[in-house]
Amino acid sequence: MSRSVDPGGIGRAVRDAPLAPLTTLELGGPARILIEPRSEGEVREALEWAESAETAVAVLGGGSNLVVGDGGFDGLVLRAGWRGVQVERAGDAVRVTAAAGEPWDEVVALAVEEGWAGLECLSGIPGTAGATPIQNVGAYGQDVSGAIASVRVLDRVSRAVAVLSNPQCGFAYRSSVFRGNPDRVVVLAVTFELLRGGPPTLRYPELVAALGGSATPTLAAVRRAVLDLRRAKSMLLEPGDPNRRSVGSFFLNPTLAVDEADEVAARARAAGVVADPSEVPMFPSPDGRVKLPAAWLVERAGFPKGTRRGPVGVSSRHALALVHHGGGSTVALLALAAEIQTAVRDRFGVSLRPEPTFLGCGAPDPLAP
């Protein structure tokens, strides 16, 4: 039987700790207990205490992909506070191991500065390194799964440490085994395999256009271009930006079978959204399906950029970002999300799935009264 542990002695435990300031949305109630472990040992101690106290546990990174309910979380929140970066070189191969609490963009900046290719298109994404494999973070033609060699985890039940290879992580579009079973492990560190002197990833048309069609841009040039693109969409956390309180893209881009996508195009024409079905933007998915831009669906369903519902709304720069303008509530944000889901489903027959994680509340329900 696990020994009882006083949470006050682990990582400076705080009771009734406000969570809103620890999230980019700045919404939600408090955690009954918040602990910021500074080592793997402290993570294990906190889990031991939670088990002995029969207390639910949630892990918090940078709070950039998290929606917290207005009532908060009646349990223990572990905020990733353990840091550190280790580098191993073998010829042109470079292995970078980042502790879960490392700020993600600092890891990307280091790789770019050193000339290690593999992460450059993921510049400017807020959050921590430990969160990236959970959602299989991706942007501008690059997914983090393409660079991850392994993930070091702590089993929440047995408290044994394991190292999972890339295939064992079960990566898919904005998903992984970690997201499918969020209460199973705590991510301790992530190892990325990068290429010294390698070329940047240039798959995304918007990024290629921003680089002026250059065939051989440097990693630094790609990073600058990505940061500029994100800034233009209010996807960087910058003080004074009225769209800064968000979780980035709130909905996933839906992937459909070819015949389903054709049906969406037909419905768009019937609704007068397009004059010809070929005008509906569609992109091939690696699994042979078709990906539709969720932002296009949101706007054509009647929610243009800048839509407001009191203290919450749609970003004035990106239709996929739902924003909190201050003084709002999670209930109001989820009501707007459900309203959008209903409108998109009614007009196009497409069900939009939320991208963030929800703590102390459920995902928006378009069928709720």
Write the layout of secondary structure elements.
Blueprint: E1 14-18, E2 30-35, H1 40-52, E3 57-60, E4 66-68, E5 73-79, E6 85-90, E7 93-99, H2 104-114, E8 116-117, H3 132-135, E9 138-139, E10 142-143, E11 148-155, E12 161-165, H4 177-180, E13 185-196, H5 205-210, H6 219-232, E14 246-249, E15 255-256, H7 258-270, E16 283-284, E17 290-291, H8 294-300, E18 308-309, E19 312-314, E20 321-324, H9 330-348, E21 357-359
Parallel strand pairs: 2-5, 3-5, 4-21
Antiparallel strand pairs: 1-2, 6-7, 7-13, 8-13, 9-10, 11-12, 11-13, 14-20, 15-17, 16-17, 18-19, 19-20
Keywords:
single chain; 4-stranded mixed sheet; 9 helices; 25% strand; 21 strands; globular; disordered N terminus; 6-stranded antiparallel sheet; 369 residues; alpha+beta
Order of helices and strands: EEHEEEEEHEHEEEEHEHHEEHEEHEEEHE
Please count the beta strands (DSSP E, at least 2 residues each). 21
Helix content: 10-25%
- Quick one: overall form? globular
Distance between the termini: 46 Å
What would you say this structure looks like, in words?
- The protein has 9 helices and 21 strands.
- With about 375 residues, the chain is of the alpha+beta class.
- It starts with 13 loop residues before the first strand and ends in a 10-residue tail after the last strand.
Q: How is this structure best summarized?
A:
The protein is of the alpha+beta class and 369 residues long. Helices cover 25% and strands 25% of the residues.
